[in-house]
Design brief:
By secondary structure, the protein is an alpha+beta fold.
Amino acid sequence: MSDDAVPARPEPGTRLMFRWRKWDGSPHWIHECVFLGSDRWGDWFGQLPGWDSSRPGREFRPEHPNVTLMPPSGDYTFTHNAAPHRTRVYIDLAWDVRWTGAEPTGIDMDLDVVERSDRGVYLDDQDEWDEHRIELGYPAEVVTHLEQLAADLETKVVARAAPFDDATTDAWLQRLAELGLE
């Protein structure tokens, strides 16, 4: 990708909304967050306690800071929740995650890789994945790619390979704290 093809990023510290939709275009989660910057893994966003995360029919306000990575591959996002949150890792398998104008957007594909203090690392929402891949007509090549990616990500999370390690995410949590936002 040439530099001309890379969309401009906002300045670190810029608040924005991360907008998700489902495969059929229907609205899904919207997360209030702040752009933190980029590294070799991709673009990083932060969210503070009390900021809005909502979807039709559900609202959620985080109790702990978290940071989210949007890698250039566009096929997942990785959220790391600060301790003492029980869910250390939440990876949303996705499609077409990218900058759309000044905001990040993506298609949530249901399947998730999760690490919780009480359950370890596991694939979540496989029932929803199985239902929606038929109901919403996910293309076979997308299904194959995301199932292989889920297995690969699960292995990397278990191994705590970067960027799923604490050293990488702690640096971004520190940057979020240094912004002094509320």
